[in-house]
Amino acid sequence: MKVSRKHLIAVILICSLLAVIVAIAVAVPLSLRDSGGPAALTTLTPEALVDKVLQTYPVVDGHNDLAWQYRARVRNDVENVTFNLNVNLSQVFHNLHTDIPRLRKGGVGAQFWACYVYCSSQYKDSVRFSLDQLDTIKRFVSKYPDAFTFVTTAKGIEDAVKANRIASLVGLEGGHSIDNSLATLRMFYDLGVRYMTLTHSCNTPWADNWKCDYSPSSSDYSCEPKVWNGLSPWGEKLITEMNRMGMLVDLSHVSKATMEDALKVSTAPVIFSHTSSYTRCNHYRNVQDDVLAKVKTNGGIVMVGFYDIYINCPPNNQSEATLSQVAEHIDHIKNVSGIDYVGLGGDYDGGDTLPKGLEDVSTYPDLLVYLVKQFNWTEEMLQKLTMGNLLRVFKKAEEVARNMQSTRPNGDEIPADYLAGTNSSCRPDF
Fold it and tell me: Angle formed by the axes of helices 154-162 and 389-403, to 10°?
């Protein structure tokens, strides 16, 4: 059959038009997807989005008290066969929140392990006590090399994540652990400690703790008499020495005045390793909105804790604390300070009771999914919350330390009058 030239041209035109239509049908959705614009045809559910984030931005958690559980339950016997972190220990030890299977399920990529000792050890054996706990952390980290790796830098966190290990760092939870000695502070840094909480729930001779924000007549909390209404001059020197070394200044547990003084003095970003929003829960362990604004100016980070008594209280108290309340704390801090200044610091194995839905370290993904569903958090926002913000703070603190290396270590002793009336029987006498 003879095909006319007109018919041939028509067939070619039709085929060309079909090819263009197919190309557009394929290219436009791909282009929209890659642009991330509002018209992007994403098929990710909130759960899938969270899973995607945690693959490359796992949780860097600011505070976990597993080391204290070793002490309380098995007298720091890391080799105790019943305390095997390779198995889910929830059925072995009542209310234990942490083990390797649950850390993996929770998408945890880095953990600051708390080196905590009782306030009652102050002026006595706090240094030896703290060294015991630091040793415990190092021993359980080294016992499980397929899961943990001990790191002391921001790059160490990044390298551990790439190697599918949980980066393990140490925070010294309370200034009483250094026994008022800058030399002892430096030695803890040399042993691997990378943040120090200025106080626990007790004053040091150079800083006030959160209980001092309650009135002296409060029936709930009592505070030793305020000496400085914040930081002392020697306490300010300590902050500068921490900046010089690259040790992060942790303002959880301190009074509001101490927070404000530290934010004035520190040239490096500060952290709150496990602290929540005062506006959402009016408890003085939490951080108030005017301080949140100063944290933004400083470039620091508030890592939200989960301990229920700091989550569930007036004006937003319920019959029991819930995951949704924690999400509200996180979103509030994001709204006040900005997305770059909020993180996660669960306080697992430290707080006795936890919100419903956040019972152990496996539950971080559930919290992230809720933020996506309820508050429309994006992939980029989740990345900053889980890992990005803490890495930024850590890297900046390291940069500040490098810039201060021409400054000699501070050898000033704490003034003798700071220690008047304290137990001095265990202190060296020069």
Answer: 140
